[in-house]
């Protein structure tokens, strides 16, 4: 928290230390989502630019500093996944790997991703954060408890209610 506050005041040394302490975790999140080192590095760089410019926007009631920063990296990685260039590269790669993958399949895959993102945006902050950490980062319930400082029962409730809401949102 101290490093982020100092970063918000323009302290480059604090920002360098914040980067040193958090870049491995944030890179892992980007790489897990993007599956390509070059794109993960791009997402990481852009995430840290946003952290630098938006450090003063952090509010401790929305989670820890690391959770806030990881969510910035995750959203940047998702933006890259959604970009036209990445979709085009992905479709070409998929078509080379499988003759069964049609343009219609790619369109349905993209629609599903957009629908899931839209439904995720309808969740309460706690629900969305727990689902992202559990399903996109692979944290266990015990790790979520340690990571967020929230009780296990609360975490399980957020996940259960969030998944129920997602299911209702995604049903036709």
TrEMBL record:
PANTHER family: RNA POLYMERASE ECF-TYPE SIGMA FACTO, RNA POLYMERASE SIGMA FACTOR SIGZ. Pfam families: Sigma70_r2, Sigma70_r4. This is Sigma-70 family RNA polymerase sigma factor. Keywords: DNA-binding, Sigma factor, Transcription, Transcription regulation. Coiled coil: none annotated. Residues 18-84, 119-167 form the RNA polymerase sigma-70 region domain. Signal peptide: none annotated. It comes from the Bacteria. Belongs to the sigma-70 factor family. ECF subfamily. It comes from Gilvimarinus gilvus. The keyword ATP-binding does not apply.
């Amino acid at each position: 928290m101290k490093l982020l506050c100092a970063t918000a005041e323009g302290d480059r040394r604090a920002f360098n230390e914040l980067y040193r302490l958090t870049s491995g975790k944030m890179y892992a999140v980007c790489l897990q989502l993007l599956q390509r080192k070059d794109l993960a590095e791009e997402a990481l760089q852009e995430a840290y630019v946003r952290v630098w410019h938006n450090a003063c926007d952090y509010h401790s009631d929305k989670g820890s500093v690391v959770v806030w920063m990881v969510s910035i990296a995750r959203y940047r990685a998702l933006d890259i996944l959604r970009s036209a260039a990445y979709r085009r590269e992905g479709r070409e790669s998929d078509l080379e790997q499988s003759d069964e993958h049609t343009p219609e399949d790619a369109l349905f895959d993209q629609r599903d991703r957009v629908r899931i993102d839209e439904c995720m945006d309808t969740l309460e902050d706690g629900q969305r954060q727990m689902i992202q950490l559990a399903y996109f980062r692979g944290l266990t319930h015990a790790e979520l408890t340690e990571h967020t400082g929230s009780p296990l029962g609360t975490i399980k409730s957020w996940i259960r209610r969030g998944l129920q809401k997602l299911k209702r949102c995604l049903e036709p």
